[in-house]
Design goal:
With 367 residues, the chain is an alpha+beta fold. It contains twelve helices and twelve strands. The strands form four sheets. It has a six-stranded mixed beta sheet with strand order 1-5-6-4-3-2, with helices on both faces. Helix 8 runs antiparallel to helix 10. The longest helix has 31 residues. The protein is globular and about 60 Å long. The N and C termini lie far apart (73 Å). Keywords: ATP-binding, Membrane, Nucleotide-binding, Transmembrane, Transmembrane helix.
Length: 367
């Protein structure tokens, strides 16, 4: 073979090889831009996170978060003389009216000063900026000028679930089931659909579920949240969790996982079923200890565990099914607890009548 012919063949082969590489690379880029699916041939997973907000919407929310200066915080709170709508050991929450927005109220959470509290503030801020879900309180702005971190949050007008259940109010059975279902959707979103990293809330309680004007829930207080836990790992920070809601396995081992939230959700579900607080006013009364044995016998005896203030106005079969779910959630072995997606599926099957009876529930979808 003469040299010109050999060079021609080599050139043609190189051009063909380059074309094949280009086509493959273009296909790769197209694949990277397509929505991911665990099994493309089976279509979207029914138990996926059906209520996860569109990623584009999440980006809009993140861009809309405003950074405030300390003088602006002072102005929003009337130099910290505005109405106090929440107060804890580490923060005070003020009611504020945002300038330039007619009738736009916000909750301004001001943390106490201190190095540890400032680290907790930065952790909560980082988590909140990742989130976009209609059943999670929305971050509107923040201030990190000083050691006293400030979060400007969506105002939720009807107080907490704890106040509604234990402050002399009442909630119908169907509304309680709707609240449980939508809180479960918010936690499922944290665990499975909030971004690249799963998030463990770490402090799911009735006090950390706020109710809007339609009594739909919004999960709040992410000061104990941890991001990046795909399996049980030892927590690097101090012990977190509220009395009566904290997972005994976590308290014993310091191991944090999604099942930590499942346990707390089980306690929340039990609070909704019984109408009792997680920890009683009398010394030593813990709801899970008191009700645990009775939950296993609740089938056919739902009236023994259901809030008597409902005066029998509930579905006994639904109550028995939810008591069984609560019992599984607060089980000793974390590996045997159901996932949040599994809990939602059970609720769709077992309490569908109550879920459909309540007007205004969004099922976690953007409205």
């Amino acid at each position: 073979m003469d040299l010109p012919l050999a060079l021609g063949i080599a050139s043609a082969a190189f051009i063909l090889y380059a074309a094949i590489l280009s086509i493959a690379y273009l296909k790769f880029l197209r694949w990277r831009t397509l929505p991911c699916s665990a099994d493309e041939e089976s279509g979207p997973a029914e138990s996926g996170v059906a209520d996860v907000a569109d990623p584009a919407a999440a980006e809009i929310t993140k861009e809309a978060v405003r950074r405030y200066g300390w003088p602006e915080v002072e102005s929003l709170t009337g130099n910290f003389t505005a109405e106090v709508i929440g107060e804890g050991g580490f923060s005070t929450v003020y009611l504020a009216c945002l300038p330039g927005a007619a009738s736009s109220l916000a909750a301004v959470k001001v943390l106490r000063s201190g190095e540890r509290l400032h680290r907790a503030f930065l952790q909560e801020l980082d988590v909140l900026r990742r989130l976009s879900h209609p059943r999670i309180v929305r971050l509107l702005g923040f201030c990190d000028d000083r050691e006293e971190g400030v979060l400007v949050l969506e105002y939720v007008p009807s107080g907490s679930l704890h106040e509604k259940l234990h402050g002399g109010g009442a909630l119908a059975w169907a509304r309680r089931m709707r609240i449980a279902y939508e809180v479960a959707g918010a936690v499922e979103y944290l665990h499975e659909g909030s971004g690249e990293l799963p998030i463990v809330h770490g402090d799911i309680t009735a006090s950390n579920v706020l109710l809007d004007s339609r009594l739909d829930p919004k999960l709040c207080d992410f000061g104990s949240a941890r991001a990046g836990f795909s399996s049980a790992v030892r927590s690097a920070g101090p012990m977190v969790g509220s009395p009566g809601y904290a997972d005994p396995h976590y308290l014993r081992t310091g191991m944090v996982s999604k099942s930590t939230d499942v346990y707390s959700f089980g306690v929340l579900l039990l609070v909704l079923i019984t109408g009792l607080p997680a920890v009683g006013s009398e010394e030593g009364r813990v709801l899970t200890v008191e009700m645990g044995p009775r939950l296993r016998e609740a089938e056919g005896k739902a009236w023994e565990v259901v809030d008597p203030r409902l005066c029998g106005e509930y579905d006994a079969a639904e109550a028995a099914a939810m008591a069984a779910v609560a019992a599984r959630c607060i089980g000793v072995q974390p590996s045997l607890r159901p996932s949040m997606a599994g809990i939602r599926q059970i609720m769709r099957e077992k309490v569908s009548s109550s879920l459909s009876a309540v007007d205004g529930g969004s099922d976690g979808k953007e409205e």
